Amino acid sequence: MIKTKKTTSLSDTSPNKMVKIAGMMFLFAFIVPTLNWAFILSQFQVPNDALNTGKNIVANELLFRIGISIELVMSIGLVVLGVALYSLLKSINKTLAQFALALKLVEAAIAVVITLGSFIALLALSGNDSYLAPLNQESLQAFAGFMLQKHTVLYSFPMVFLGLDMMLFCYLFFKSRYIPRLLAGFGVLSFALIFIHAIMNVIAPHYAAMPINQIVFWGPSGLFEILIGLWLLVKGLNKDLLHPITQR
Question: Using one digit for the tens of pLDDT, what is the confidence trace for 99-126?
Fold first, then answer.
């Protein structure tokens, strides 16, 4: 009798493993982008000077490529987090969980497109394409610098979807009581602030860029990601309330 190997998808992984994956991905989603911006991408920026920002990219091309690669990995992490949360919460309300997962996938896709824009700017700087011959090197450097300087503004678009999908996932956590309701409610509030700030970046970018507003609107979500990541890794879910479908 020939034995066949049984294959399982990520969403079919046991709840305990999914909880650990979700916890790790929450910490990953906060720590990696923060470190990537603080220690890599921000180092290229010269305030209000796209040309010199572009020159910094040319002078440190390998480091810039590393920063882009990390952003690609971050997008994969978003997908993994979305699938893990969907797997844990689909038994509470499958329609809402599917909608939240779809929003998370859109968020990840837009993040990839933004990273692709940075990569295209880098190719323009380092390539010898005849189509770019009419443009001098300084123009290309200024364009690459402009793309990096507008990085935060461009990320307002995936942040709209981040705010929405995480509000839904946190609402499902609140409804399920898998984690303390106070923590889940704090998640809904913190990502509502992310959504508001993302829209603010489109409508009133100068107001959104004020340091105090960045702290007020972004600080709670960072704290929530750390708290829920640690909670899921250390405490896990309230097993007494796990839905039978989730436990299968």
Answer: 999 999 999 999 999 999 888 888 877 6
**CA-CA distance, 118 to 115, in Å (whole number)?**
5
Q: Is 244 a residue whose pLDDT tops 60?
A: no
Under the banding of pLDDT at 50, 70 and 90, the label for residue 248 is very low
158: burial class by Cβ within 10 Å (0-12, 13-18, 19+)? buried
Query: Two tokens at 41?
Result: 């991408």
Task: Take residue 64 and report the two structure tokens written for it.
Answer: 């810039």
Query: Are 19 and 236 within 8 A, CB to CB?
Result: yes
Contact in structure between 210 and 200 (CB atoms under 8 Å):
no
Is 118 within 8 Å of 148 (Cβ atoms)?
Answer: yes
Residue whose C-alpha is closest to residue 147's, from 184, 121, 108: 121
Single-letter amino acid code for the residue at 159: M
pTM: 0.85
**Taking the alpha carbons of 94, 240, 182, 83 in that order, is the dihedral positive or negative?**
negative
